[in-house]
Amino acid sequence: xxxxxxxxxxxxxxxxxxxxxxxxxxxxxxxxxxxxxxxxxxxxxxxxxxxxxxxxxxxxxxxxxxxxxxxxxxxxxxxxxxxxxxxxxxxxxxxxxxxxxxxxxxxxxxxxxxxxxxxxxxxxxxxxxxxxxxxxxxxxxxxxxxxxxxxxxxxxxxxxxxxxxxxxxxxxxxxxxxxxxxxxxxxxxxxxxxxxxxxxxxxxxxxxxxxxxxxxxxxxxxxxxxxxxxxxxxxxxxxxxxxxxxxxxxxxxxxxxxxxxxxxxxxxxxxxxxxxxxxxxxxxxxxxxxxxxxxxxxxxxxxxxxxxxxxxxxxxxxxxxxxxxxxxxxxxxxxxxxxxxxxxxxxxxxxxxxxxxxxxxxxxxxxxxxxxxxxxxxxxxxxxxxxxxxxxxxxxxxxxxxxxxxxxxxxxxxxxxxxxxxxxxxxxxxxxxxxxxxxxxxxxxxxxxxxxxxxxxxxxxxxxxxxxxxxxxxxxxxxxxxxxxxxxxxxxxxxxxxxxxxxxxxxxxxxxxxxxxxxxxxxxxxxxxxxxxxxxxxxxxxxxxxxxxxxxxxxxxxxxxxxxxxxxxxxxxxxxxxxxxxxxxxxxxxxxxxxxxxxxxxxxxxxxxxxxxxxxxxxxxxxxxxxxxxxxxxxxxxxxxxxx
Length: 644
Known about the structure:
globular; 29 helices; 17 strands; magnesium; DNA Primase, Chain A; DNA-directed RNA polymerase; alpha+beta; 4 domains; Dna Topoisomerase Vi A Subunit, Chain: A, domain 2; DNA replication
């Protein structure tokens, strides 16, 4: 819809920005000068204790000196509540007493009809809420209490009850002067085939109102009280208000919670959403009785760039997940994907929260799996891949699936991950087929030979110091990018460390320039200076699988890893410098001093390696190789001395 010239200017002039923002923040009265329209508060867009968020009512703009968020009343609603542009304008116009520009007559007529239907739906919600409190609703109240839904939850979700009577709601609404056509068109009642009086669609059911993002009731959901009912759950039919495939339960509140930084969780039903919200996972939604549609998927991405799909761990749940993977593959883009939370088999979110508590749910949410894992699981689970023909069939199927991805960059990353999973699977198979060896009285499979993919990787061609230094530099930078607080904490060490790779040195300088900023601003600044270099760094397979990069929540562990990497890099280079200088002196006759220097260098290296790693660490072989190399230098020095 196009807006006439001057409409937005008039809307902004009638809107007091501090009133809009004031619903989300608490003003700092010591710093604010409200008489002059000058307001300060902690920023609603990032976590802080100081009042760095400034609102200027005279200019109608806000600005945060911490995260650099800025805009007017329209952008504030869009950012803080995840509203669309026209939705924000309609809300502000309504509050300012302005009429939205007229539409064409037919569109205006449809809008008026929807407004009438919405009023009928609100009357039905009020009626069902009252019925829950009557004697007829006693069994429904008992059921809700057994499900741990107290009065606060019932009030929050406006839960009601439809008595098991054929025309109870119809008569009540007619008594309020509402015509039968409106009641039927709202989906509350249906006309019998014989042409008699309409009858209630919802009878003997607990009622859950379904609202659109603007808060209008557009449909109802009903859960049968009778366990032998034909349908356990029943939704309103599609109407001028309600399109089942384009609606989500708890859409508006979830969108607002996601705007505050909560993860968007997509559960299966009303009770799952209510249980999650009660456990403070407030950005929870559910599709309405069907599998997620493409329209609903796009709705979810407008709320959050990476929704978490929560499904039961049984066969049906996994099947639903893989169907969604098929739907999502052609639609995913950079920064727009899905992750999956697979619950223990036989448990839904409500069961898990009641039996194991919020911590167990939070752990599952934190461990949500990427979509590629579900794709791989579907293509390999239960299959015996013991022949070239079967493996070729797997490759063909995977290529076909990955080929459906439109974004070439994502397609390439999917290919890399599938190749890694394939190498892991077939590498294990080869190890098991190898000749067994008996050790310590037990039969063990022979170690697998290096795969072609491994030999072709960065670590494969050489075990020289250049490769190790390159990866260690990359790890230092990647930890700083994953944990901006570490960049500030280790700023002096980062200033002193030498990055011998030019790309890494440019990134180091960019990180130092952004150190001390909030996470969002930190990433933006580094990306501005070194966008392509940063993408290359974070795309390294060795970086992606590193625990401090994968787990962005544990900054303390990341700081320990960063300190270790810096220490190892310094130790390795110190040893290398000492050995080079000593080797120059070995061109003549060796003496005790040179031999002592080489011995000290080897011991220094060993101490640095032992500081964090035990004998079973993955650097044990590297340490042994370096020890042998240094000992060889020492032996040659002694031999030259004896020869002299």
